Amino acid sequence: MSHNLLNPHLIKVARQARSMSQSQLAEKAGLTQAAISKFEAGLITPAEDAIGSLAEALSFPTSFFYQTDPIFGVPVSISYRKKSSQVKSRDIERIEAEMNLRLMHLRRLLSSVEYEPELTLPMLDIDEFDGNAERIAQLVRAHWRVPSGPIHNLTNLVERAGCIVFQCNFQSLGVDGLTLRPPGLPPCIFLNSEMPGDRQRFTLAHELGHAVMHNVPNPDMEDQANTFASELLMPRRERHSIFHSNVDLPLLASIKPIWKVSMGFSIMAAKNAGLITPSQNSYLWRRMSAMGYRKKEPSEVDIAPEKSSVVKDIIELHTDSLGYTYQDLYEYLKIKGDDFQSLYEISNEAKPKLKLVTN
Ligand SMILES: [Zn+2]
Question: Which pLDDT score is estimated for 247?
């Protein structure tokens, strides 16, 4: 494929990244909606001045539209915060666009560095374990030699095993996370960075479950990923000692900073291990509701979100060891500086420029 052909899919990706409809883009770029529609379908190649107008209206450099990357749809295993039917298709498109942009950047960034994770990500097909996701979580813990007790930093562990974790600006788009295994790239997990830390950890554990167990989707995959996440974060055999005394809200709040799981998670973990009765379970949920904790657990026990580091490290390698300026990186990734900074939370002003003092 030649590099000087315009890629019609990228007009759509850029438009969806800006949450624009075709008619909104047409108006902003001074073109007709019919033209935009035909450009995106690849039926007409826009003339050079039209490409310039599109780039301007979408705030992407013109070079962006000439890349040849494959474009992916969101996977079936997307974790919705709202009911999936309540998530607007425009919001899904926006997430899909961000996912594709990040994958394109990752592909560029990995082409110049050696990336060798120290652990391996096991592939344990759920069908070969009779649907026993709990057993698979135990094997993953054993495979990575995770000691008993809480996983101190799950993001770090997952990244050491070769998954790329992206904290994304999904804001209130109603999606917690999603996983993709793009050909030729490491497995990628996208998390909504707006969620509380404990919720991000649970979503990451859930998405990891998909990456490990679900090469092929199945109707029970969401429940299986939840079971995997629960066992990974708080092994059943350790729960007796965790829920040692009377299970009440203060105990749940005291467990939270240690195990970095929500109070709601702990109620379910205790219930699933048979450590509380059904009536204790409903009593605890009633107390949680009465205190407003089902909407927002008490701030005193908030869990700080973990930070992914692999992509940042690779970017730093480019700036620190490979001699890229930020401007070089924007050109290399075919993205404007504003987008780069908001996607990677890296500001080109973060590091003061140091000069040697010569007397
Ligand atoms: Zn899922």
Answer: 95
Q: Is the pLDDT of residue 149 over 80?
A: yes
Distance 211 CA to ligand 1 centre (A): 10
Distance 207 CA to ligand 1 centre (A): 6
Q: What is the pLDDT of residue 113?
A: 87
Q: Is the pLDDT of residue 67 over 60?
A: yes
**Where do the domains of the chain lie?**
1-68, 78-237+305-359
Closest to 205 (Cα-Cα) out of 246, 146, 293, 250: 146
What's the gap in Å between 283 CA and the centre of ligand 1?
29
Q: In 10 A of CB 97, how many CB atoms? A: 20
Phi-psi region of 46 (alpha: psi -120 to 50; beta: other; left: phi over 0): beta
* CATH hierarchy code of domain 1-68: 1.10.260.40
Task: Name the E strands within 26-130.
Answer: 79-80
Q: What is the pLDDT of residues 337-354, one digit of tens each?
A: 999 999 998 765 555 444
Residues in the chain: 359
Asked if 175 and 195 count as a contact pair (C-beta separation under 8 A), the reply is no
- Backbone angles phi and psi of 18, in degrees to 5: -95, 10
For residue 45 the two structure tokens come to 């190649």
